Amino acid sequence: MELDYQKMGFKCGIEIHRRLKTKKLFCNCATDVDEASKSEITRKLRAVAGELGKVDAAVMHELGREKEFIYKIYPKSSCLVEMDEEPPHSVNQDALKISLLISKMFSAKIPQELHFMRKTVIDGSNTSGFQRTAIVGIDGNLETSKGFVGIANISLEEESCQILETRDGETVFGLNRLGIPLVEIGTAPDIKSPEHAKETAEKIGMLLKSTGNVMRGIGTIRQDVNVSIKDGARTEIKGAQDLKMIPELVNQEVLRQTGLLNIKQKLQERDFKKQELYFINATSVFKGSQSKILGGKEIYAIKLEKIAGLFKEKLNDFRTLGNEVAGFARAKAKVKGIIHSDEDLAKYGIINEFVELRKFLGAKDGDLIAIVAADKNTAENAMNAVLNRVNELLDGVPKETRRALANGDSEFMRPLPGAARMYPETDVAPIVVLKSEIRKIKRPETLDEKFAHIQKEIGGELAGQIIASDYLDIFESIAEKHESEKKTIAIFFTNTLPQLKSRENIEIEKISEAIFREIFELLSNGKIEKNKIAQVVLEYSRTGKPISEIISAAPKISAQDLEKILEEIILREKTGKMNVIIGAAMKELAGRASGKEIAEVLKRIIAK
What we know:
Layout: E1 11-19, E2 39-43, H1 57-63, E3 68-73, H2 93-105, E4 113-114, E5 116-120, E6 130-144, E7 147-158, E8 162-167, E9 170-174, E10 181-187, H3 194-209, E11 221-228, E12 235-238, H4 246-269, E13 279-281, E14 299-304, H5 321-333, E15 339-340, H6 351-361, E16 368-373, H7 376-392, E17 400-404, E18 410-415, E19 422-424, E20 431-432, H8 435-440, H9 447-458, H10 460-468, H11 472-481, H12 486-504, H13 513-524, H14 533-543, H15 547-552, H16 559-573, H17 578-589, H18 595-607
C-alpha cells in the first residue's frame, strides 16, 4: 500500500556522524593503529544532574541496569585522557579546522565562540560518563531534488568506545576508538519521504567525502533517523549503517507509529484504564510442565485487563504489539522475553497451565496473561516494564530511541534523551573563532569537479567508480606522486581490493594508507610487478610481515636463466621490439623478475 506521507503529517530529519582523519580530539594518540590491548580497567558509572538540575530519562534508564564496564587499554591509541585519569588536552587544531570547513560548505553560521559541553552518557561508551561536544555551525542548508533541506546544527565531538564483548552484567569496551574526532550533521525536519531521506544522507556523505579529511571503512560513518507522524512522537532510530536501508527503516517506523495509534483507539473503545502493578509467583502452576523453556524455573505472572487479542496485532511488517512489549522488557530488565496468552501456547506445551493460571488470577475473557521466567527481582523489573509499556499505549506513541535492525525494523533502546543531560565542560576553554580565520578556509573541489579532471586521465567509467569508492582521497594522494600509474592505482582500489575482500575475506579496513603508498612506490621503482600487487596485499593481510620482506621472499630467477628465456622468446616472437618481448617475458616469468631486470638483460642480448 502506497502511503500518503504528506497527509500523514510525516516529519523526518537525519543525523550523520563521520569520523575525521586526524589524531584524537583531546590528546595526541593515534587513530589509525591496529594493535593488541596490553591491560584493562574496570568502572561503574553514576548519573549526575544536567545544567537544568534534572537527571535525564535516558540516563536513568541506563543507571537502572546496574552494569559493570571493562575497558581495554592500547599503548599507541589510548592514554590517561581516555581512561579519565587526566584532563583533556587542548583541542586538536586539524579537527577544528576541518569542522569549520564543513560548516562553511553547508553555508552554516559559525559562532564567534565555541563552547564544549558535556553530554551525560552512562551506557559505558565513555569512561568519564559523558561525551564532549561543541556546536560549530547552525542554520545551514543542503540542496536536494525536493528543495532545500535545512542543516540545523553541525557539531564537533568525540567518538565513543567500541563494544568488544557483552556478557552477563558487564560489557567490555576498547579505548582505541574513544576520542576520535567526529563531525555530526543534523538536518531540520524538512525531509519529505523515505527515499528523500536516503538522498539527503547520500548528499551529505558525498559533501563530507569531498573534503578528503574523513575516515573510510565500516563504522566510520553512522546515520541516525528521526521520524514522526501526526499525533505520533519523535522517534530516533540509531545506527543505520547502510544507505539502502534508510527508506525501509523510515517506512517501517511510520507503520509502527500508525499501528500504535490504532491500538490507542481500540483501547479507548474498550474503556481501558491504566493499571497498578500486581504480579504473582506462579511456579506451582507450572511445576509439572514438560516445557523445556520453563522447566525447573521460577515463573511470575501478571494479568493485563481488557487487552486480550491486541498483543498479536501487527504494528508493521515485522513486529506485533507483543514483540514490542517484550522488547521493552528485555531492555529494561535483561530478561530473554515474555510469554503471553495471545501467542500459540501449544508450541510451548503450556495450554493447560494457562487455563489454570487464568482461574488463579481471576482473568476474564478480555484479559491477557503474561509470564516471565526469572528470579523475583528480575521478574518484578520485567513485569513493571510490561505494565508501564501497556499503560503508555493510552498515550499513543512514546518518545524513544530505537536501534536499527538489518531487516529494516527497529527495537527499543532507551527513552529519548533531552536537554537535561547537557552541562558545561569546565576542562576545555572556550575557543574564539576569528572572521579572518574563517575567510582563509578554502572550499575543496566538489566531487563533480574532481570527476571532470580525473576522467580525462583514466576514463569516465573508472573515474566514476573511484569517485564513488571509499578510496578517493587515498587514490588522489598516491596518484599525485605516481602520475604514470594513475589507471593502475584506480583499478587496484575499485576492482582488485574489493575482489580480495569478497574472495579472500581479508580485512582491508586494517590496511593503512602507508602500506598502499609503499606498494605503489615499489611499483614505480620496478621492485614489484603489477600482476603481483594483489598477492602482496593478500600476504600482508594474512601475516602482517613487512612489504619488503614479502617481496624479497618471492621466488627469483638467476641472470643466466633469465637470459636463456629471453633468447627463446626472441626466437619465438620473431621480433626485435623490446615492449613485445618484455610483455611476453613478464607473462611467462610470473613475477620472478621485474620489468627493470628484464629490460637490462634484454639490452645486453641486443648489444651482442
